[in-house]
Every structure is written in structure tokens, then in C-alpha cells.
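pls design
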């Protein structure tokens, strides 16, 4: 029997999940029921349809009636089912038991199954990051080599994020999706306020100095884990000698075991992607994109330009690699990033593809990719800039002046560094940019309806940028090594014997 390559399996699973999910949403997305929950004095009338749930509650003792609505595009509704569960737990319980449409039941079940796949990826993420970073750093042999590696990586991340933001600003000013659209009435006022930019950046600095490294590992605090691991690796190189050799061999052995475990988990990636795509399309469908189509199109076009033109040009002329061949090598990671909307969850697969399929050395990939999954968010930075300018156009009826757009660009660049590699992290950081230009936080609610799909797209761009950065840094490191003079001696301060 013909065995398809992994990237083809994932692609087929993605398309199949989307087609089945849209069909379910179209033909099995509506459901209406009336019933009296036993043991209560209530009578419920539930109408579950695409992106909108209406629940009429009659208290038979008092005759009081309430009309509850779950709709992310309505100012008088609960934005999510989670908000309904927190506010009306009893009603939510009976909705889950009796009130869901077939499409929603299938979507919820597939979401739970896809969540198992994500849990397996997250299970290996922390030990894989620690082992890969340590094996990569200790494999350098010289502490001074780490400085050049970090410098090139940081310059690449800052440059591509800035290029992504500029692309987004150009597109949003050209298309102007928020002008002439009657969307201000759907602003939602339930989002919590966020801290200021300075406070958030200081929090990120604090996160880089964990008070308890073991607690950071247990809680999955990636910035703390990476910073402590980098420090541990640097001082391992500085100690040198037999101690450094032992630590290097231990973490290299752990890394090999974790990579073997990761590869076993990756074999079920097509099933996980199928379930995640089925969940997203069965519950969201396509009709939700109507009112926000121009905004949706603007973000997609900007992401496409950055992913299809900007990054491949860098890949071709700086890394001297074929963009098409490199994209083919990284396709399993890119498709998994799209379906999971989490760069952290995709990291094990990204590492595997970079080393096994793209031929990048472990010394580079184990340093660049974990760091990129934490601080390099090209797609998120672009999305935040476009979203804030779109909200400003809706709110003010005009585009922001150039000086304000500069503030948006700088703030989006800084805020994207602090964005976690998890679904919807960009929404949290966006509140900082809204505050920076004086926009009300509640206006963020108008884009919630399409955020999930855009989150999937921008996460793929984030991972694609990390992957291209890995190739660029590998090329630059190779060129530097080729032109470097041969070392005359090694000391125990900066090298292994």
C-alpha cells in the first residue's frame, strides 16, 4: 500500500476536516428544543445556530423570564460559551446535555480528541526545549560563539517583525477596511483591562529571572525556562573541563530520547489536525466572516505578502536556500501550527522538521527555534497593527495620523515579544496597543468573531518566520566559521579540552 509522506497526510487531514466541518455547520448547525430540567423549576427553550445561541429561561415559580444570547458579534450577549458557563453554570450544564446541535456536538467531541494530541505535544515541549538548548549551547565548545549566534538571531527577529508590521500598515491604509462599515454598534464591553506597556515589559523582564526554576518548569513558563537554560549552558561552557563534558553528554542523551518520543507523537499528527480542523469549522462555519470580510481579507493579504514574498526573498538571498524546497521540508510543522494555533505546541515538530527534513544542524536549531517560539511573532505583530488601525477606523471614522501609526508600529513590535505562543495570545497584548493610541478596550470585541481563524493563519506565519530564521542563522554561522582563523589553543575557561 502506498504510504504518503507526513506533510501530505496532514494536508489531506486539514482539507478533510474543513470540508466535513463546513458541511456539518451548513446542514446540521441548527437545533431547537424545549424541555423542563428535572429537579428544577425552570423551563428552557434553546435555539442553537451558527455563531449564535439563544436561550429563553422561564422560572415556573415566579413567572420570570430571561433571554440569554451567546454571540461574539452582539453587544448585548455573552462573547463565548465560557462566559455563559461562568455566569450561568446551571443553564450551561443543561445546554451541554440537551441543547447542542449535531454540528456543535461533533465539534466539541473533535475538539476534545484534538486536545489530546496537543497535550502530547505540550508534554514533550518543556523537556525538549531544555535538552535541545543545553545540547546546542554545550556543543558550541566556546562561550564566545554563543554571543555571535544570539546576535544574529536577535537581528533577524527584530528585522522580520518590523517588516511584517510595515506590510500590515501599508495594507490597512490601502484597503481601509474599517471605513464606511457599520461595525461600531457591535463593540463588546466585557473584556478586562490590561496593564500598560511599561508594566508588561517589566513583567517580561521579571519572567526572565525565575525565583524558582523548578516551578517555572512545572508551570511551563517558557521565557523563564529559556533564560535559565541559557544561563546554565553559558556557565557550563565557562566552567569547562570534565564537568562540561559530563553535562554535555547527559543533555545530549536526554535530547536523543526526547526526539525519539517526539517522532512517535508526530505519527498521529494527521489525526490531531483532522480533529482540530473539524472542531473549528463545525462550530464556526463560514457565515461569520460576512460582516468582517474586508478586515479579514486585509489581514490575510498582509500575512500572505510577508509569508510568500518577504520571508522567501530573505531565505533565497541571505540563506541561499530554495524557498519552495524549504517550505516543503517544514510543511508538517506549518500545517500543524495552522490547525493548533500554538507555536509552543508546534515546537517539537518544528525542531524535528528543521533537523530531519531541512538538514539544519542541531547546534543552530536547538537555539534559534525555542527562542523564536517565545519572542519572534511576525504574524502576531502584523495582526495586532492591522487590528488596531481597523478598530481606529471604525471608532473615529478615519485613519489614524502618521504619528499615531508610528506609535502603533513600535508598540506592536514590543508587545509581540511578550505574546505567549498559545491560541488568542495576541488579543491579550492588543489591549496595550489600544491604550497607547487612546482607543477603548471594549472595541476589541468587534473582531472576536474571526479571531480564531486569523489566529491559525498568523501562527503559521510565526512558525514559518522562525524556520526561515533558523536557515538564515545557520548560513551566517557557516560563513563565519569558514572565514574564521584556526584556534591556536583552548583553555578551560571557554572550551572543552
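designed seq:
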Amino acid at each position: 500500500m502506498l504510504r504518503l509522506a507526513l506533510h501530505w497526510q496532514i494536508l489531506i487531514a486539514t482539507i478533510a476536516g474543513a470540508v466535513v466541518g463546513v458541511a456539518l455547520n451548513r446542514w446540521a448547525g441548527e437545533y431547537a428544543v424545549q424541555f423542563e430540567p428535572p429537579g428544577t423549576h425552570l423551563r428552557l427553550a434553546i435555539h442553537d445556530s451558527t455563531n449564535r445561541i439563544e436561550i429563553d429561561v422561564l422560572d415556573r415559580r415566579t413567572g420570570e423570564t430571561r433571554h440569554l444570547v451567546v454571540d461574539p458579534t452582539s453587544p448585548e450577549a455573552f462573547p463565548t460559551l465560557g462566559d455563559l458557563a461562568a455566569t450561568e453554570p446551571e443553564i450551561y450544564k443543561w445546554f451541554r446535555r440537551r441543547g447542542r446541535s449535531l454540528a456543535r456536538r461533533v465539534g466539541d467531541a473533535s475538539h476534545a480528541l484534538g486536545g489530546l494530541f496537543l497535550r502530547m505535544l505540550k508534554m514533550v515541549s518543556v523537556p525538549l526545549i531544555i535538552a535541545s538548548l543545553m545540547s546546542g549551547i554545550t556543543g558550541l565548545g566556546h562561550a564566545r560563539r554563543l554571543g555571535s549566534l544570539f546576535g544574529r538571531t536577535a537581528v533577524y527577529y527584530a528585522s522580520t517583525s518590523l517588516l511584517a508590521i510595515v506590510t500590515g500598515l501599508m495594507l490597512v491604509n490601502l484597503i481601509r477596511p474599517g471605513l464606511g462599515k457599520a461595525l461600531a454598534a457591535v463593540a463588546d464591553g466585557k473584556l478586562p483591562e490590561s496593564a500598560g506597556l511599561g508594566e508588561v515589559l517589566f513583567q517580561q523582564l521579571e519572567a526572565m529571572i525565575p525565583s524558582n526554576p523548578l516551578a517555572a518548569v512545572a508551570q511551563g513558563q517558557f521565557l523563564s525556562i529559556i533564560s535559565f537554560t541559557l544561563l546554565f549552558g553559558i556557565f557550563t561552557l565557562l566552567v569547562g573541563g570534565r564537568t562540561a563534558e559530563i553535562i554535555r553528554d547527559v543533555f545530549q542523551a536526554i535530547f536523543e530520547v526526547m526526539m525519539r518520543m517526539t517522532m512517535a507523537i508526530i505519527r498521529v499528527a494527521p489525526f490531531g489536525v483532522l480533529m482540530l480542523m473539524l472542531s473549528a469549522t463545525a462550530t464556526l462555519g463560514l457565515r461569520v466572516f460576512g460582516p468582517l470580510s474586508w478586515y479579514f481579507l486585509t489581514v490575510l493579504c498582509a500575512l500572505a505578502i510577508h509569508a510568500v514574498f518577504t520571508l522567501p526573498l530573505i531565505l533565497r538571498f541571505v540563506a541561499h536556500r530554495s524557498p519552495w524546497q524549504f517550505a516543503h521540508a517544514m510543511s508538517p510543522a506549518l500545517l500543524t501550527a495552522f490547525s493548533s494555533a500554538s507555536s509552543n505546541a508546534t515546537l517539537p515538530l518544528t525542531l524535528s522538521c528543521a533537523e530531519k527534513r531541512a538538514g539544519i544542524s542541531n547546534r543552530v536549531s536547538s537555539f534559534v527555534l525555542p527562542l523564536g517560539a517565545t519572542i519572534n511573532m511576525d504574524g502576531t505583530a502584523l495582526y495586532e497593527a492591522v487590528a488596531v488601525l481597523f478598530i481606529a477606523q471604525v471608532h473615529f471614522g478615519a485613519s489614524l495620523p502618521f504619528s499615531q501609526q508610528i506609535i502603533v508600529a513600535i508598540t506592536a513590535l514590543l508587545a509581540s515579544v511578550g505574546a505567549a505562543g498559545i491560541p488568542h495570545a495576541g488579543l491579550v497584548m492588543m489591549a496595550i496597543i489600544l491604550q497607547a493610541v487612546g482607543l477603548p478596550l471594549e472595541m476589541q470585541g468587534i473582531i472576536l468573531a474571526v479571531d480564531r481563524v486569523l489566529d491559525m493563519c498568523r501562527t503559521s506565519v510565526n512558525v514559518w518566520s522562525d524556520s526561515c530564521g533558523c536557515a538564515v542563522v545557520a548560513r551566517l554561522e557557516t560563513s563565519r566559521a569558514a572565514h574564521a582563523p584556526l584556534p591556536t589553543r583552548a583553555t578551560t575557561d571557554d572550551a572543552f579540552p
